[in-house]
Amino acid sequence: MLYTQHIFFSDDIIPKDDIDKLFEKLEQLEPPTTLIENILKLAIKPPPAPAQPDSIPLDPWVQLDSLVIRNEKLKPS
Amino acid sequence: MQIPDCTKTQPSTTPDAKLAQLALDGDEHAFETLVHRYGTTLFNFICRFLGDYDQASDILQQVFLQLYVSLAGLHTDRPLKAWLFQVARNRCLDELRRRHAIHFSELEAAADDDELSPLTAIPDSLPLPEEVAERHDLQVCLQRAVQELPTKFRSVVLLRYASQLSYAEIGQVLQMPEATAKTYFQRAKPLLRAALSAELQIETTQQSA
């Protein structure tokens, strides 16, 4: 897991309190380096062939979900 | 941290709406620019919301795939950033509902024990230097405090602290007035303070502004 330090905003007129200061230290998580590549590969690949007229239409969420590349070696969370 | 190769992507100043239009017209690099522009902030929001690094990866893919298939129907007058965070939040809420439906008993059991989530566990079996250990402890405490918030407050707090959105942008994501987003954020503060007070020994009373 990779971290980088936050670049914190300053658009609030209310002065920072103790909680703000603590959360300034919240480290930024970096997504896996392969994730962005996967997204680009998936999104930019040619669209699937149109469904046959007699086929059962799939739930759009199921269709979208089926494109996601999961790390199958990990235990389900 | 790996620096993405942005040599082929659009300039960072190109507006989102323009990039979305270019992507719709088949410009792959325009879509790539959008992914690089929002990938990390969306990932932070999702990951902190769910407390699950691997699941956040799955959901981030779903969000960008949904963007890609929705490009034609997007309203260019509505900020794309707000749309993306709204989709991410909805997918997170779907996931939480699914967890409660399927794993409710497991969640109850998990809440009783003191195990750290995979998100907060830094994989290192060697003894940590004191400074690193303290930093790790703080990250664990902050994550726990956020996870204990009701989802409506969690959204606002994470959009602000983890994704660094303005109150106006938070209002757009959550479809509420900017003032309401600000109020939610301020109402979440005492809850965060209470959750953090025991572990970090901070003052439990509201400090005057």
Description:
The complex is a heterodimer of chains A (77) and B (209). Chain A starts with a strand and ends in an 11-residue tail after the last helix. In chain A, 32% of the residues lie in helices and 8% in strands. Chain A has helices at residues 18-23, 33-44, 60-66; strands at 2-4, 28-30. Chain A is built from 3 helices and 2 strands, in the order E-H-E-H-H. Chain A has 77 residues and is mainly α. The longest helix of chain A has 12 residues, at 33-44. The radius of gyration of chain A is 21 Å and the shape is elongated. With 209 residues, chain B is an all-alpha fold. Chain B has 2 domains: 1-104, Orthogonal Bundle (Rna Polymerase Sigma Factor, Chain: A), CATH 1.10.1740.10; 127-200, Arc Repressor Mutant, subunit A (Orthogonal Bundle), CATH 1.10.10. Chain B contains 8 helices and no strands. In chain B, helix 2 (28-50) packs across helix 6 (151-161). The longest helix of chain B is centred in the middle third of the chain and has 33 residues, at 80-112. The model of chain B is unreliable at 1-7, 104-116 and 205-209 (pLDDT under 50). The chains are: A mainly alpha (77), B mainly alpha (209). At the A-B interface, helix 1, strand 2 and helix 2 of A face helix 2, helix 3, helix 5 and helix 8 of B.
Strands, helices and their partners?
The complex is a heterodimer of chains A (77) and B (209).
Chain A: E1 2-4, H1 18-23, E2 28-30, H2 33-44, H3 60-66
Antiparallel strand pairs in A: 1-2
Chain B: H1 16-24, H2 28-50, H3 53-70, H4 80-112, H5 130-147, H6 151-161, H7 167-174, H8 178-200
